[in-house]
Amino acid sequence: MRILALDGALARCAVALVVDGIVLAMRQEPAGRGQSAALPPMVDAIFGDTGINPRDLDGVAVTVGPGSFTGLRAAIALAHGISAGAGCPVVGVSVAEAMAAALPNLGGRELWVAIDSRRGRVFLHRAGEDPQPIALEDLPRVDGRVAVAGDAAIEVACRLAAVDVDVMLTDVRFPPIRQVALVGMQRLQGDIPPRAAQPLYIDPPEAKLPAGGLRPAPLTE
User: Are residues 12 and 91 both part of a single domain?
Assistant: First the structure.
């Protein structure tokens, strides 16, 4: 299968074209708040590098969160646009799914994916649970051994180590783009449950409408 994978969930943009599990071309670059501008040229470059026509795609896979509101919207909107133009399906892949796929052999450790919420907390995703916003000082109790991934992994691992938890810090900070494609391929093949390409928001947006709506109240005499 020919899968185009896109990721703009965290402070890095990545795009890859993966054919039957092999990465034909990949682009990635830091992009704290510039995903909407960075991703389209990267997609164009991928198709230029490979010579593959978008209409030959079997599917598009895109990370859906948790992560940046702006980055998620930019990547997901682009994925839907490419899907519509190519006439192929688009599927969502969570950040935790991609990271777990990159860490298949943890020696029986439970994987924690910790994403920086930029609000003094982390989005913590544990196996079998929905991601939750949690303050670092309120991390859950641990009964066994843990491995930690994500862009807030260092902070979480330090907190766990400080209370004598057997914790392993992995080197996975961002969703590996090849694994985004591989999980997407599994989803398209029906090997794992479906996930819509819609943002996985945990917190409400920081931006709020002003009182009275977007426009000022009309002047009255």
Answer: yes
User: Looking at residue 11, which CATH number applies to its domain?
Assistant: 3.30.420.40
CB 94 within 8 A of CB 127: no
Q: How many CB atoms lie within 10 A of CB 98?
A: 28
The model's pTM:
0.88
CA–CA separation, 100 and 71 (whole Å): 21
- pLDDT, one tens digit per residue, over 26-80 is 999 887 666 778 899 999 999 999 999 999 999 999 999 999 888 999 999 999 9
As a whole number of angstroms, the distance between CA 169 and CA 91 comes to 29
pLDDT at 219: 45
- Is 112 within a domain? yes
Are 144 and 115 contained in the same domain? yes
Q: How far is CA 59 from the centre of its chain?
A: 17
144 in the same domain as 45: no
